Amino acid sequence: MTDRRTFIRGAAAATLLRPGLAAAHVEAEPVVPTYDVPDEHLPQRVSIEHLDLRPDEIHVYPWEFALYWTLPDGQAIRYTVGVGRPGLYEEGEFYVGMKRRFPRWTPTPGMLRREPEVYEQYRDGVPGGLENPLGARALYLFQPGRGDTLLRIHGTHLPETLARAVSNGCARLINDQIVDFYDRVPIGTRVVLHPQPENFGLY
C-alpha cells in the first residue's frame, strides 16, 4: 500500500515536472513547501461506494472536515479541510467557474461589514503568495444565474486551521495539497457543499 506521505510528495513532484508549464511562471512563483501535518490530515484514497457518487466531482462534508475528489469504481481521494464558521457556511450545488495560481485576495463586502477592524486594512487587496489568505491555488465557485458566489476552495499556510470551522465560508486545504488537488480539477466540475448540522461548531 502506498505510504500517504509518499503519495502527496510524489503528486507534488509530478506537478512540478509536468511539461508545458511556462518557465516564466516557474521562476516567478514561490516554491510550495511540504507542510508538517498529522498523518490523518494527509490525502487518502478511500472507498465511497456507500455514498453512490459520480466520478469527477467535488463533495465537501463539513462535519467530517472532508473534501472528496471522486474517482471511478466507488473510489475517492479524501482531503482534510477547514470549513466555514457556523452561520457563514453555505450549502448547495456549485461548479468550478475559474481557477487561479497564487491568486490575489480582496476581502468580500461581508467581511468588511462584519469585522472592519480586521479587514479594512486589506480593502485594496493582497498580492498572491504563500501567506496570502487564498494560498497557493484557488478554485472559484459559481452558480448558474448567480455567477461568482465569492466562495472558494483554496490553499492556506496554516495547518492548525485544518479540521476546524474557522473560515468566512470557504473550504481550505494546506498549500501543498491544494497544488495536487488543483491540477486534478477541470473548469466546470460539479461541487456539492453538503449541509452543516444545526449544532455544528457548538462545542
TrEMBL record:
<feature type="active site" description="Proton donor/acceptor">
    <location>
        <position position="154"/>
    </location>
</feature>
<dbReference type="GO" id="GO:0016757">
    <property type="term" value="F:glycosyltransferase activity"/>
</dbReference>
<dbReference type="GO" id="GO:0018104">
    <property type="term" value="P:peptidoglycan-protein cross-linking"/>
</dbReference>
<dbReference type="InterPro" id="IPR050979">
    <property type="entry name" value="LD-transpeptidase"/>
</dbReference>
<feature type="active site" description="Nucleophile">
    <location>
        <position position="170"/>
    </location>
</feature>
<dbReference type="InterPro" id="IPR006311">
    <property type="entry name" value="TAT_signal"/>
</dbReference>
<dbReference type="InterPro" id="IPR038063">
    <property type="entry name" value="Transpep_catalytic_dom"/>
</dbReference>
<dbReference type="GO" id="GO:0071972">
    <property type="term" value="F:peptidoglycan L,D-transpeptidase activity"/>
</dbReference>
<dbReference type="GO" id="GO:0008360">
    <property type="term" value="P:regulation of cell shape"/>
</dbReference>
<keyword id="KW-0573">Peptidoglycan synthesis</keyword>
<keyword id="KW-0328">Glycosyltransferase</keyword>
<protein>
    <submittedName>
        <fullName>L,D-transpeptidase catalytic domain</fullName>
    </submittedName>
</protein>
<keyword id="KW-0378">Hydrolase</keyword>
<comment type="similarity">
    <text>Belongs to the YkuD family.</text>
</comment>
<comment type="pathway">
    <text>Cell wall biogenesis; peptidoglycan biosynthesis.</text>
</comment>
<feature type="domain" description="L,D-TPase catalytic">
    <location>
        <begin position="56"/>
        <end position="194"/>
    </location>
</feature>
<keyword id="KW-0808">Transferase</keyword>
<dbReference type="GO" id="GO:0071555">
    <property type="term" value="P:cell wall organization"/>
</dbReference>
<dbReference type="GO" id="GO:0005576">
    <property type="term" value="C:extracellular region"/>
</dbReference>
<dbReference type="InterPro" id="IPR005490">
    <property type="entry name" value="LD_TPept_cat_dom"/>
</dbReference>
<keyword id="KW-0961">Cell wall biogenesis/degradation</keyword>
<keyword id="KW-0133">Cell shape</keyword>
<dbReference type="Pfam" id="PF03734">
    <property type="entry name" value="YkuD"/>
</dbReference>
